[in-house]
């Protein structure tokens, strides 16, 4: 690359950075997006991200406006029912179960589930359609210097970029966040998650199921059938050493253990992909902006994967940043605009990070009394129709979103 000037430089081409590039590009801004790690766009390739993302209702508009939804919709699985199960008794058998139907609160499904590797494939293809967007896989941000009127960024290949707005989408250890001197509060749980796909004999009927016992939730999220068999994505959270033990088990033993942990709700589960391991933390940046710089996605906030909030919060960051940029394009990246962005997002993000932290701690508890209280909570609280509807709306991001 030769030296360049752009409206927006996005540091990070993960799912959030690629979405931001498509969103700002579709709105007519000139955009450059850089990432030292080229995206892996094939499920079987080394390094493929085998997590899936359940996009909740408010994210749909962001994906549509970014010109992404038409590409993603044919691959998406609708989530019509959310089921919460407590299996905290002596055996892993389900003992309390509550199901919430999207149709009770909305004409639309709760959300739409898509594999992350496929998101990257379709997002990269969308960027190629946009003449005002350039994506530079293999090149990262090396250093950042900000001035009142622009951010000056040097890339790892020596290119110097001048941008009105620098968007940090470079993950939980964000080099840009560090370069602009924004601290973050981190909570460690000693917990990890396994993410993989399984097939099972019983159909999922578009029901997403979260099963609580100890160590964290075991969640099955519907995917399209695979070789004629019903298929689901699983996120299985446990204490770190237990996850490493499970990840190393021979396949037949692993299948038996996860079937038991699932309460056999869908019959015997069969592993269909590699098992990938993800560290679990909560994290929130002290501020969501610095001079000419906005933090989005995991650069700004990280939550345990409960209630499908992480990337959905990131899409809300993008929506607000884009709204402010479109309202006053001449002010893009100036202090007034970025202060507004911070004020609209930080309280909402803080509330969700705190709420998910409590849910995660509750799910991790292994003592008998704590488990029984949790079961009673699921049975009682979620059984009251007004409370249940309020929780459903909040979980879907309908009420709380900025
Ligand atoms: C098991 C699991 C399940 C989840 N399920 C859901 C779900 O159902 N719904 C949901 O909403 N969320 C979910 N999440 C959260 C979601 O996956 C994350 O929020 C999301 O993947 C993070 O995306 P990101 O783009 O912010 O970060 P990353 O994917 O970490 O991307 C950051 C990018 O920055 C790049 N980078 C690093 N250094 C530099 C540099 N110097 N210059 C430029 N780029 C750099 C990296 O190479 C990387 O590609 C889940 C998370 C986990 C762990």
Automatic annotation (TrEMBL):
Family (UniProt): Belongs to the UbiH/COQ6 family.
GO biological processes: ubiquinone biosynthetic process
Organism per entry: Rhodovulum bhavnagarense
Domain FAD-binding: 6-351
Domain of life: Bacteria
Gene Ontology molecular-function annotations: FAD binding; monooxygenase activity; oxidoreductase activity, acting on paired donors, with incorporation or reduction of molecular oxygen
UniProt cross-references to Pfam families, sorted A to Z: FAD_binding_3
PANTHER family linked to this entry: UBIQUINONE BIOSYNTHESIS MONOOXYGENASE COQ6, MITOCHONDRIAL (PTHR43876)
Listed pathway(s): Cofactor biosynthesis; ubiquinone biosynthesis
Alphabetical list of InterPro entries matching this protein: FAD-bd, FAD/NAD-bd_sf, UbiH/COQ6, UbiH/COQ6_monooxygenase
Name recorded for this polypeptide: 2-octaprenyl-6-methoxyphenol hydroxylase
UniProt keyword Flavoprotein present: yes
Cofactor: FAD
Alphabetically ordered keywords of this record: FAD, Flavoprotein, Monooxygenase, Oxidoreductase
Gene3D superfamilies attached to this UniProt entry: FAD/NAD(P)-binding domain
